[in-house]
Structure formats: structure tokens, C-alpha cells
## 1
Amino acid sequence: MNLSPTSSAGDIIEHLRAQRSQENLAGMARFGIATETALGLSNVELRRIARLVKTDHPRALELWRSGIREARILAAFTAEPKKLMLDDARRWAADCNSWEVVDTVADVFITARFDQVLIPEFAADTREFVRRIAFAMIATAAVHLKKEPDAHLLAWLPLIERHAEDERNFVKKAVNWALRQIGKRNAACHGPALALADKLAQSSSRAARWIGKDAVRELSSNKVLARLGLTDAGADRAQR
């Protein structure tokens, strides 16, 4: 089937089903991707399809409602963030059952500029993947919102500290990701993020210690210090 910007959600789903790969599904499962509704298409292939079909917001919502892993990722790739409603974002979050879908929709939510509303809301939610979205959004914002004042990113550090004791794997890794991305944003953000990482590394909580030690290791690396124009002495001062 030849896909185009006029292809319907049904056309796209039919195409996805025709590309099903059992071998790829096994590989996805090894990376912790939920495969119950998956067809086994790679994200590279989904990006290619997204370029063919272009953006179409109503169609993206329909693709999401299908429940199919690939269709939901395509929904995120082809939605129009400015047309996404908060209630739709909340429904998408509630539907997430895999870390990779979470990380994909987090990008859409940041582009839609739902950060101030949804990050604290989702962080307070006890569901593992909903909470993960909050910290995936912070990580995404730190990288992609180039013009955002640093103070807005640093304001999320107390939220990172508050949830650093969450032992659940997909939350813990997202909290760590958010902290590292803030610290790597620029020299101004590096010091406060590294100071928090050092504090967490001394925590009595196993999850917080892991988050802190891992973040300290990366933020203190020569590669990061060189990219940010920091010396070892400057990094030492940032930790004090």
C-alpha cells in the first residue's frame, strides 16, 4: 500500500499490520518494551511512515485510539501539538504502558507547552508510567526548550529530589534522566544539578543513591565539563 498525506488511520493501520515482524517483537521485549499490542516495526520505519503521511491531528487521535503500539507512536509523530487538548494529553498518559511510548509523547506535551500544568500533576500521580512522563518532560524540556530561562528548569530540581526515592525502575531512570539533562544544559544549570546529584548520592534511599551517583559520574566527566567550558576546579566549586 502506498501511503500519502491523504491516507486514513485505517489505511495506515492496515499497512502497519502487513509489516508485522515476530523477530523484532522478541528483540523489543528484551529492551523492556511492552509488546502485547505491538507489531514489531522499528522507530526508524515509523519515522519514515510519518514523513510520508505528514501531520493530521484528527487522524493522529484516531491512530492513538487503536491501542496499537506502532499506531500510537505514529500518533505522537503526526499530531499537531498546538491542537492537542489537555484532556487528550491526560488520556494519552493514562493509556501509556511502555517507557518508549511515554518518552515519545513527552516530546509532544513539551512542544504543546503543557509543562507547567502536567509535570507537577503527573509527578503526583502514583501510576508508574504517568509519573515517568513528568520526568521525561523535564528531560525533554532541558534539551529542546533552548530559549526557556534556566530558572524555569532549575525550579524542577526540588521535584526531582522529592521523587528520587521512587524505587520503580521506569520512574527511577526518568528522574535520573531529568537530573542529568538539566545538568548538561549549560554551565549555569550544571552547578545546581551536580550539587543535588551529590546530595542524592549520600541518601539512605537506594534509589536516590543510584540516581545521584550515576548523575555525578556523568556530570563530572571530562566530556561534559569540556562541552560546558568548565574546569575540574569549577566543578568542585559547583558541588560546594
## 2
Amino acid sequence: MAKLPRYSLAHDDKKKCWVLKHEGTGQVVKSFATKAKATKGGVLEKAVGGKGAVRIRKRNGKIQEERTYPRSADPRGSKG
């Protein structure tokens, strides 16, 4: 299986918004006014093009959760 691109959603204190960045390049993919707007109803999945792993961080920088798109690509969800 090909390695999924990794992203991180974290709060940017300077910009005062939540920023989704590609972890490998540091490139900003998308910005959101609130964390709720970023995490609701498939918004993150669309932002990463349907393929990727997103680490959602708390305001203090610690990882809150990780989501994998598509869900079937999550290595923890596969049984073998």
C-alpha cells in the first residue's frame, strides 16, 4: 500500500485561525476560522483530496485525534 500524505490541523496564534498544513512540506493547504468548521462534515477529507492522514491538535499543540481518509486506508482498522 502506498504511503498516505500526512497533514496537521493546528491553531496559528499569529494568524488567529486553524491551519491545515502538509507535514512533509509545511505548505498551508487551507485555513479555517474555527476548529469546528474544519472538523465538521467531510471538510478535512475534501481539503486533503480524499487521501491522507490528518492529525488534529489541541490549542496547546498536543494531538487530540488522528483521522485517515479514506477510512479503509487506516492501518489500525485493517485486520489481517
## 3
Amino acid sequence: MTHDTFTLQPINDTACAVLDAQGRHVGNLKRIGAVWKFKAVGYTERGEWVPGGGPLTGRHNTVFADPPDAAEISAKLRPG
């Protein structure tokens, strides 16, 4: 697994957690209507959740194919 590989952890039929290569939660994929969108998340030093924050703030609301695929997610969310 490389530094820019992401994995999906299903939450329910319309949401998946997105984890980075170190297993950190960096966002969620949510089905909104007919598309899947990435919703970035971050955490404060106190562990408080920050919607739209974190290391992938610039990728917030990126659209993905239905169904979401880990390879596509890694390609679109990869830094740089």
C-alpha cells in the first residue's frame, strides 16, 4: 500500500468511510441523488470532528462513479 492509496469502509447502503494508507479517517463517500460525493473531514487536536476539513479539504465534493471504486477514489484523491 502506498502513501496515496485509500480504502473504503462501508457504513450503510449510501455511505462509506474513506481511510488513508495509515488507516486514518479522512472523509466519507455519500450517495446524494444519483451520484457519490466525497465529503472531507478533519479533526482538531482535541479530537473534535471538522466537516469539510482535514488534509483533503481541496477534494471536498469530488464526484465518483456509481458504485464507488477504491482505485478511482485513490486516483482522484491522491495529493498533487
